[in-house]
């Protein structure tokens, strides 16, 4: 579950291009977000500066694939909740 949680956070950070903005939205300190995504950063070499988040070409591919998976999972969850 930690991996899925980190992937979901990665998607949010990549969309927002900011750890701080995501942290504010979900009510999680920036330092906690950074720790949760740290293993993914190592695996996919996410480039982070103090000002913004930038995705490499490989990061962008990873992001797009994971986002499609999470979108499908959310749709399946939402659909089953209506039964």
From TrEMBL:
Residues passing through the membrane, by range: none
Under the heading Gene3D superfamilies, the entry gives:
Winged helix-like DNA-binding domain superfamily/Winged helix DNA-binding domain
Q: Name one Pfam family in it.
A: HTH_1
GO BP of this protein: DNA-templated transcription
Please state every residue range assigned to the domain named HTH lysR-type: 1-56
A GO MF annotation of the entry reads:
sequence-specific DNA binding
Query: Which SUPFAM superfamilies does this entry report, sorted A to Z?
Result: Winged helix' DNA-binding domain
Similarity remark:
Belongs to the LysR transcriptional regulatory family.
Q: Which PANTHER family match?
A: HTH-TYPE TRANSCRIPTIONAL ACTIVATOR TTDR-RELATED (PTHR30537:SF5), HTH-TYPE TRANSCRIPTIONAL REGULATOR (PTHR30537)
Protein name as annotated: HTH lysR-type domain-containing protein
Question: Could you tell me which species this protein originates from?
Answer: Paraburkholderia steynii
């Amino acid at each position: 579950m930690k991996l899925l949680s980190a992937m979901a956070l990665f998607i949010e950070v990549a969309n927002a291009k900011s750890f701080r903005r995501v942290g504010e939205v979900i009510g999680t300190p920036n330092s906690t977000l950074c720790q949760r995504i740290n293993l993914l950063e190592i695996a996919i070499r996410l480039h982070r500066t103090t000002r913004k988040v930038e995705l490499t070409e490989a990061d962008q591919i990873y992001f797009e694939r994971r986002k499609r998976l999470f979108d499908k999972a959310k749709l399946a969850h939402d659909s089953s909740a209506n039964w």
